[in-house]
Amino acid sequence: MEDELTIAGRAFRSRLILGTGKYESFDLMRSAVAASGAEMVTVAVRRIDFDEAADDITSFLPEDVLLLPNTSGAETAEEAVRMARLARAGGLPDWVKLEVIPDPLYLLPDPVETLRAAETLLEEGFTVLPYIHADPVLARKLEDLGCSTVMPLAAPIGSGRGLKLRDAIRIIVEQAGVPVVVDAGLGAPSHAAESMEMGADAVLVNTAIARAGDPPAMARAFRLAVEAGRAGFLAGVMEEQLEASPSSPVGGTL
Amino acid sequence: MITVNGRRRERSAGETVASLLARLGFEGGFALVERNGEPVDREQYGKVELEDGDSLVIARPVAGG
Question: Which domains occur in chain B, in start order?
Fold first, then answer.
């Protein structure tokens, strides 16, 4: 049986979700998305400046890739809900990456506002994927409300610092009944592999690929790392121990 | 007159959301429209007639993480 990721009843073969921000061009983004194998990508929602000609990002994305509108820019539950409603009415999917971020320095999400927004959006029939701090209690509450994933941060957005909140994410993985997507802060393919080995169901990566020397090549590297980490998790990673254990026979030496 | 993304603009006679978008040069892709604080369904763009004093926010999907 194929090892698929299922979110809200939709099956994904890829466990790598891509953010589309910070690429030097849409062409480069398109190449990176193709190389990553991602089947879901995030987009933001912003006002149109009718004085500036701008390309339509969706025309650079394959049709079978699910667009996941985010609520970036929202600092309150009301702002996030407004953005999600606007996106859905305008024809974008009714899936939403819920992020409510009042803090401009570390871009840490507001748990209270996120919970409030999730409640409203779920009542209105949205499929909600909330971006959260690595808080197992909050993750549980969002799951109980009906969110389709929880997406804890590994480290602050765009920091590339890797799995700094490893212990807390491990608890979320252990307790969650919905897919756990490690979102934000991953800087290198090894960070993605580590997340997957630990039992995360998927990772969401943007800056680490968009700002790499060669984004499409890095997208491929992350794809391989996610696959390797997932395969390692499924194979059962050995228990760590402090003392050495010889790999060669102890007796019979010459 | 109507307001679009904070800027006052003329309203043509019988103007709909769709005709406004065309007049503003919006070509293809997703235009996400809020009229007087309420989101407008995409299927209604050709039907909703704008009225004097309407305030519109028009957004689109852009690159983001």
Answer: 2-59 (3.10.20.30)
